Amino acid sequence: MAQAILAGGCFWCTEAVFRDVIGVSNVESGYIGGTTENPTYKQVCSGTTGHAEAIRVTFDPAVIDYGQLLDIFFATHDPTQLNRQGNDVGTQYRSALFPLDEAQESEASAAIARAQAERDAPIVTSIEPVAPWYPAEDYHQEYWEGEGQRNPYCLAVIPPKLMKLRKSFAAKVKG
């Protein structure tokens, strides 16, 4: 198994997408890239810690490779919005990749180039150095499967992302 750390705005939304991808065995929401040790959700939401809301994806590279995960990542969020995703504004919602080794770093650059070829607006996704990972509080894990189904924000944002996943990556969606 391998891991990937991706930040594409609200972690509830990115977690929901990647839980539906074949070859993915676990998705954990958390915080990365900031200066505060063991930050809380409230601290990260303040925008003062430097952390991004992110997901740590555990996947089987024999089933889906890192580059394919990145293609899904770029297709299911807007990598042209700087420090925001829709109404979520702040550096904690930035589009960023945190490669775990040189091979992932090289593939991250290649995936950005592929995604840029499909867009007119410049991609602002950053490639950041790996940093300490802090799992989000328990109530953020598997959020869409529970509380998210009753959250108006999630109900507005997540289903279109899942539809795009199913339409554009049908062969990579769990049945």
Automatic annotation (TrEMBL):
What species is this protein from?
Novosphingobium pokkalii
Which HAMAP family does this entry report, sorted A to Z?
MsrA
Gene3D superfamilies according to UniProt: Peptide methionine sulphoxide reductase MsrA
Give the EC class as a word. Answer: oxidoreductase
Q: Which SUPFAM superfamilies match?
A: Peptide methionine sulfoxide reductase (SSF55068)
Say if the entry is tagged with keyword Oxidoreductase: yes
Q: Where on the tree of life does the source sit, at the highest rank? A: Bacteria
Q: Which residues cross the membrane?
A: none
Domain Peptide methionine sulphoxide reductase MsrA: where?
Answer: 3-154
State the active site.
Answer: C10
Q: What is this protein called?
A: Peptide methionine sulfoxide reductase MsrA
Q: What is the lineage of its organism?
A: Bacteria, Pseudomonadati, Pseudomonadota, Alphaproteobacteria, Sphingomonadales
InterPro entries associated with the record: Met_Sox_Rdtase_MsrA_dom (IPR002569), Met_Sox_Rdtase_MsrA_sf (IPR036509)
What EC number(s) does the entry state? 1.8.4.11
Q: Does the keyword tRNA-binding apply?
A: no
Annotated Gene Ontology MF terms? peptide-methionine (S)-S-oxide reductase activity
A Pfam cross-reference name: PMSR
The entry's family comment says: Belongs to the MsrA Met sulfoxide reductase family.
Q: What does this protein do?
A: Has an important function as a repair enzyme for proteins that have been inactivated by oxidation. Catalyzes the reversible oxidation-reduction of methionine sulfoxide in proteins to methionine.
Q: What keywords is this UniProt entry annotated with?
A: Oxidoreductase
For this protein, what reaction is catalysed? L-methionyl-[protein] + [thioredoxin]-disulfide + H2O = L-methionyl-(S)-S-oxide-[protein] + [thioredoxin]-dithiol; [thioredoxin]-disulfide + L-methionine + H2O = L-methionine (S)-S-oxide + [thioredoxin]-dithiol
Q: Which NCBIfam families match?
A: msrA
